[in-house]
Please model this.
Amino acid sequence: MPPVAKAAELGVETVTEIEVAYHLSPAPIIGITGSNAKTTTTTWVGQLLEAAGMNPIVAGNIGRPLCDAAQEAAADNWLVAELSSFQLKGTASFRPRVAALLNIAETHLDYHGDMDDYIASKIKLFANQTEGDWAVLNWDDPVCRQVAQSVRSQVLPFSIRERLERGLFAEPPYPADGAAPEAEGHAPVRTIVWRDGRGGETTLLREEELGVPGAHNTANALAAAAICIAAGVSPEQLSGPMRSLRAVEHRLEFVRERNGVKYFNDSKATNWAATANALRSFRGGVVLIAGGLDRGSDYMELLPVLRERAKALVALGETRGKLARVAELAGLAAIKIVEPEKDAESTLRKAVREAALLAEPGDTVLLSPSCASWDMFASYEERGRIFKDSAHNL
Model:
């Protein structure tokens, strides 16, 4: 932008709004970032802290400006902030009391240029933390493990794939990435476990008691609980409220069941990793609706999970040809490319009708685009709401 370019030319420091909010806020800040699951985890942290009487204020990239929340906050509040790489890139002294990095996947390269700049922006979240602060990190993500080697704060990990001596984990662990998926009807009964690193262990609840499907949502729940423990909530206080967690709108949101087919809205899945997580959440046949803004990815990372979990693809948007090609390589028997109709809404409604024709009782129709919405829609929210209305009007 010209004003930013001019400021750089004149040697004037440019910072983002969260840097200003940090200086305004009398309340300690929880900063949550990652390529996926930021909004879900931030929402759940707010709900769990509220149940524990910790007076949270949720703001940031989730919708409410952080400066607005900072001016409302008092010393006995917790400011729970969802933070994007864009926001973090323009920070200087921002220091959250609790900083969480949920995961890293290839995204926003049209802005950052390469993964190095993207990751460097994300990990600025930890740059000013001290020994009295906390870094909550996903132990299943290799970038997060690398971050653990360099932070000055106390590290609190969470994992769905490894038993931890200290932290939150799923018991038994999920199979490692690339391992054969658990057969339907043979998945073990899992629990969510906390270990304090001193020999103490607490079972919080059974995984099936969470009100959301999918291993990735179990990881999100572990992250939210770990963040709350870092903020001072006892593990025992979390068990009850965690049973009340529900999917956030446009994030693997159940829409309806019709003729034995379930419809799920995952419009917020704007990269391949989010779509892969969504596909792994279902054990029956999945008719996937995907496609959107073309940012240069070839989507080949989706090939194995399409082969394992999808029965059909309905592709639309700029990336429809690329996704259809990957589905063909994955061996999907049914692939439908939806060409643009008179407008974007008509195109998506046609895609939903095509998916309904391909689905059989016991199947799932899943909108999980793996792409941003801006080639067709003003936002992923608009895309998701049209999908939901289309499903309800079949």
About this structure: The first helix runs from residue 2 to 10. Residues 253-392 form a domain with the Protein-Tyrosine Phosphatase; Chain A fold (CATH 3.90.190.20). The radius of gyration is 21 Å. The mean pLDDT is 92.
